[in-house]
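Possible regression after last week's pipeline update?

I re-ran a chain I had predicted before the update to compare outputs. Posting the input and the new output here so someone can diff against the archived version. Not blocking, just want to make sure nothing changed silently.
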Amino acid sequence: MKKLISAVLLLFAMNANSQEINKKIQDDAGNVLGLINTCTREGLNTIPEMKSRYDVEYPNYQPDKATLKALKPLLKGKKITIVMGTWCGDSHLQVPHFYKILDALEISEKETELICVDRSKKAENGLIDQLNILHVPTFIFTENGEEIGRIIESPRETLEKDMLSILAKK
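New output (post-update):
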């Protein structure tokens, strides 16, 4: 009996700590306003405004091949966190471009984390409180848990050239 109770309590604790992926934010009338917390690329397609821009921006973006070639070895051992708003025009533009770069570099989704925020640039349960997010999208590059650089809102040149600038310093 003790084993059964322990198993039930463990299962309950695991469920209490787990976070809903692709959680939708709704207004009082039940209209979906966007996504919040940890999300997937597929989850972005559930938000019509995001999907319509993604479907245009992703195929039309052509990353610079020479820059990609220089970037590929520099990304080994790095983790990328993308903080965005499904309501944000800059996110609608830059996130599909960023995914195009990641796909061209054959970067696994396991090496990236996508976090969506509300209009106050917050997620639930303190998920991004330590990241100091002031503008979205923000692309954060880390190695061994330490931040090595970020691209905030829009690149200075292009996303791939800004990535190279950040990673080549390391």
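Follow-up from reviewer: compared with the archived run. Residues 21-169 form a domain with the Glutaredoxin fold (CATH 3.40.30.10). Marking as no regression found.
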